[in-house]
Amino acid sequence: MRDLLIVGNWKMHGNTIMISELVDEIIDGLDASSSCNLLLCSPFPYLGLVSQRIINSPISLGAQNLSQHTSGPYTGEVSAEMLKDMGCEYVIVGHSERRELMGETNKIIANKFITAIKSHLKPILCIGESLDERKQGMTTSVISDQLNTVLNEIDSNDLSNAVIAYEPVWAIGTGLTATPDEAQDVHAHIRAEINKSSKKVAENIQILYGGSVNGNNAGSLFSMPDIDGGLIGGASLTSLEFLSIAKATNK
Ligand code: PGA
Question: What gap in Å lies between CA 218 and CA 209, rounded to an integer?
Fold first, then answer.
């Protein structure tokens, strides 16, 4: 039985007041009976603030990106060790916005994944097809390519410290969501790909769904056998919506 994980990805939103209030409201609204794990991925400048506020709560801290390098003259970059130092346990790697807008290739993403693992940060590897790719029937081949570029570079045991997020690009921030069946098909494909390297890792790895998840559609998505939680963008910016998604994890 895999634990469910709900991740808030705030992207480039928020300020000191808004983030302080949001975190406090989420902690206050947490249902003691809920068994899911909650993770908040803050913009870099607020990691310290969130880290302080979640002390003594069941919430974990993550970042949205890291440098592929460990240290050195890389102006504006943030290393895995710095993230650890700020209290991060997780880091998002290869989000489609970074692939598309920042030119991150599968190779760079594989490097970031390895850097995170070496620093004992758990990478959340995002993979997903575009609308064109889906229309052309390329979904599974795109997913396999994105996954295997990383799998080929690592020991399959390293995956046991990672999370995968399936995020169809056409569903991110659009209000369009993959149906539970569409998402389940891709999640099962991802698990089958991982199974080729390790049955044990494939059984245990958490595979999250992301793309316009909200309080209304979360329950049906999370009820699917291979969907182990969600990576939540827009709906993680309001405490009520985020908490209603967390509550939908009672499978
Ligand atoms: P969304 O974003 O929930 O706003 O669609 C998800 C993501 O980009 O991780």
Answer: 10
Find the farthest-apart pair of alpha carbons in the chain and give their distance in angstroms, rounded. Answer: 49
pLDDT class of 1 with cuts at 50, 70, 90: confident
- In the chain, where the domains are located: 4-247
Which residue of 212, 217, 236, 238 sits with most ligand 1 atoms within 8 Å of its CB, as the best mutation to test the pocket?
A: 212
Output the pTM of the full model.
Answer: 0.97
Mean pLDDT of 137-142: 97
Ligand 1 center–CA 71 separation, angstroms: 30
Number of Cβ within 10 Å of residue 122's Cβ equals 19
39: number of Cβ within 10 Å: 25
Confidence of residue 127 (pLDDT cuts 50, 70, 90): very high
Pocket (CB within 6 angstroms of ligand 1) = 9, 167, 172-173, 210-213, 231-235
Half-sphere exposure of 56 (CA within 13 A, CB side): 3
CA-to-CA distance for 119 and 103, rounded, in angstroms?
24
Q: If you measure from the C-alpha of residue 10 to the centroid of ligand 1, how many angstroms do you get, rounded to a whole number?
A: 9
pLDDT for residue 33 is more than 70: no
* Catalytic positions: 95, 167
Residues 34 and 63 sit within 8 Å (Cβ to Cβ)? no
pLDDT bin (cut points 50, 70, 90) of residue 249 is confident
What is the arithmetic mean of pLDDT over 182-202? 96
Architecture of the domain spanning 4-247? Alpha-Beta Barrel (3.20)
